[in-house]
């Protein structure tokens, strides 16, 4: 098992994995997003269920990230899971750290990861 805080390097890491002959059996992406749920709610999201507004924006979390995850799953046989927490709001500017709501959601996210047998 390997845990990586990919930060701003997520696309480079996924691109490298997609081109590599050695790939992990499983990738679990942990992120926060706004999908209209209760703030702090933790949920598993299928790649096919990523909201269209998230697929079409060009932030560091999206294209080509969602495409690379799909390719790793469909073409390379990697088990890809997204565990996300609902944000309270999307800030106007990037701020370091997590909101208190997301900090309180972390134990639930960790439990979901551990339940996957990682």
Domain tally: 1
CATH topology: Rossmann fold
How do the strands line up in the largest sheet?
1-3-2
CATH architecture assignment name: 3-Layer(aba) Sandwich
Write up what this structure looks like.
The chain is of the alpha+beta class and 118 residues long. It has one domain (24-115): HybD-like (Rossmann fold), CATH 3.40.50. The protein has helices at 10-19, 52-56, 65-74, 100-115; strands spanning 26-33, 42-45, 79-86. It has a 3-stranded mixed β-sheet with strand order 1-3-2. The longest helix has 16 residues, at 100-115. It is globular, with a radius of gyration of 14 Å. The protein starts with 9 loop residues before the first helix and ends with a helix. The mean pLDDT is 83.
Task: List descriptors.
three-stranded mixed sheet, 4 helices, Rossmann fold, single chain, about 120 residues
Q: Could you give a quick summary of the protein structure above?
A:
The chain has helices at residues 10-19, 52-56, 65-74, 100-115; strands at 26-33, 42-45, 79-86.
Give me the secondary-structure topology.
Elements: H1 10-19, E1 26-33, E2 42-45, H2 52-56, H3 65-74, E3 79-86, H4 100-115
């Amino acid at each position: 098992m390997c845990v990586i805080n990919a930060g701003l390097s997520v696309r480079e890491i996924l691109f490298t994995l997609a081109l590599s002959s050695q790939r992990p059996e499983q990738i679990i992406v942990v992120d926060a997003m706004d999908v209209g749920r209760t703030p702090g709610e933790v949920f598993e999201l299928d790649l096919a269920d990523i909201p269209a507004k998230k697929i079409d924006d060009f932030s560091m979390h999206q294209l080509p990230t969602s495409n690379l995850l799909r390719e790793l799953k469909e073409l390379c046989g990697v088990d890809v899971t997204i565990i996300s927490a609902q944000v309270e709001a999307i800030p106007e500017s990037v701020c370091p750290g997590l909101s208190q709501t997301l900090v309180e959601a972390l134990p639930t996210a960790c439990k979901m990861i551990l339940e996957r047998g990682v």
